[in-house]
Amino acid sequence: MKNKYLITAATLLALPMGSAFADAKFDKMMKDSFQSNGIASIDRLKQDAAQKYCSDPAVLAGKGNAKQAESIQKANMETIKQPAGGKYIGDWKAGERVAQSGRGATWTDKADAANGGGCYNCHQINKAELSYGNIGPSLWNYGKLRGYSKEVVTYTWNRIYNSKAYNVCSNMPRFGHFNLLTEKQMQDVMALLLDPNSPVNQ
Amino acid sequence: MRQHWTRGALIVSSLFVLQACTTPEPPKKAATPAPAPQAAAPADAPTAEIEKYRAMIADGNPSDLYEMAGEELWKKKMGPKNVSLEKCDLGLGPGVVKGVYAVLPKYFKDTNKVQDLESRIVTCMERLQGFDGKEIIAGSFGKGKRKDVEAVVAYVVANSKGATINVSMKHPKEKEMYELGKKSFFYQAGPMDFSCASCHADPGKRIRLQDLPNLTTQAGAALGWGAWPAYRVSSGTFWTMQYRLNDCYRQQRFPEPIYISDDTIAVSMYMAVMANGGKMAAPGLKR
């Protein structure tokens, strides 16, 4: 009788502890398996709410909690800063260079080295570039198709700054949020997409 | 090094001159004015060219040289104990090399751990030959004793060509390692929010012109896991799976994974189990 009681108590305890134990084991594995190297410090393994939410395969398969997704998106939206003086559009030629470069933020990069946007890794942009990826949608004729309204401009800025404000599990890096690109670089990429003279909009 | 493959106009012949580049170069100029696309899916043409190139030199994969060096190292008496690796148990019994890569990673009773090929070779170098494993772990790819491990990897892997991938999940630690590896595969972090799944969990995806196998499916994992380790033409070196994972994590903007750490073995376990039933085709030949 006593044994039976103990087993039941142990089972009750084991159920919720099972997953906590697995998490603790995973956390320890991660902590023990990585080391800081250059600018890529071990702190980078810490997750924010969006990263944590999107690390669940069920969420990626579309079975996430819509309310939680919305609240994380809202929190990300609130961190977006609009450019100083309302200047959204820079130089598309400089923007093309930012879009081409996939450099930056790895343990072989220096802290003061300029990052690239790596845009072509995932997007078609200027049709002259044949080597482009397809993880993101094509941005060819971006402005020509969407127009150049204030809404389109702000939306595009926000997407580059923090794509998770619109889609919590977007694959696109949060370029402004994590200071991957400077304000000027983002203005230049904006020009590549939204300057009517950019080759993207021909 | 996906940034290497930056130009649409980058021709296959440049594969030969991209030797020894280990860090991505910034673009020298803005977009090269490449010819306008003519037919549908013009971006596939260079991919087809790489396939042609692969077929052309398939009989002369430079990993041959690593395989030969590895066979010598396997048989040579070395280390403080002056013995060879010929009694090393990689998973199918002492000295068995044939087909063994197709069953790795697996649980080993003597270390009470799930191990991949590289961690197992290091174990043998420690226990049989008396080398200091910590030195190998603290070292760098392509250097010192780790370079020897890499050559032995090439030798062992080549002896599993054509074998059916058959990784066990029978031992509780194997099952646990698979689960930890799966969790790690989907673990998003760092300043770019990437996980392995960001690039390897959807069909038909590319970075630049590099096809990305969907490692969450059997077919994709068989293709991906089955082709590594491989000779990298772009760096002119043989890359083990540990080296491949190290560079994936670098591009994910993660901190550096420690050589043969549990995470690298867990992720390997996840990929290998997903690939079960596929054929080992390594050493492969990669851009």
What labels describe this entry?
heterodimer; A: 202 residues; mainly alpha; 9 helices; 49% helix; globular; disordered N terminus; B: 287 residues; three-stranded mixed sheet; two-stranded antiparallel ribbon; 8% strand
What does this entry look like structurally?
The complex is a heterodimer of chains A (202) and B (287). Chain A is mostly helical and 202 residues long. Chain A is 49% helix and 1% strand. Chain A contains nine helices and one strand; from the N terminus they run αβαααααααα. Chain A has helices at 2-33, 49-53, 57-63, 66-77, 92-100, 119-122, 142-146, 150-161, 183-194; one strand at 34-35. Chain B has 287 residues and is mainly alpha-helical. Chain B has ten helices and eight strands. A three-stranded mixed sheet of chain B has the order 6-5-8. In chain B, β1 and β2 form a beta hairpin. In chain B, α2 packs across α5 and α8 packs across α10. Mean pLDDT of chain B is 85; it is low at 1-43. Chains A and B meet through α1, β1, α2, α5 and α6 of A and α6, α7, β3, α9 and β7 of B. β1 of chain A pairs antiparallel with β7 of chain B.
Largest pleated sheet of chain A: none
Question: Radius of gyration of chain A, rounded?
Answer: 22 Å
Oligomer: heterodimer
Total helical segments of chain B: 10
List the helices and strands and how they pair.
The complex is a heterodimer of chains A (202) and B (287).
Chain A lengths: L1 H32 E2 L13 H5 L3 H7 L2 H12 L14 H9 L18 H4 L19 H5 L3 H12 L21 H12 L8
Helix pairs in contact in A: 5-9, 8-9
Chain B lengths: L43 H14 L5 H13 L30 E3 L4 E3 L1 H11 L5 H6 L5 H15 L13 H14 L10 H5 L4 E3 L2 E3 L5 H9 L3 E3 L4 E3 L1 H11 L4 E2 L4 H14 L8 E3 L1
Parallel strand pairs in B: 5-8
Antiparallel strand pairs in B: 1-2, 3-4, 5-6
Helix pairs in contact in B: 2-5, 3-5, 6-10, 8-10
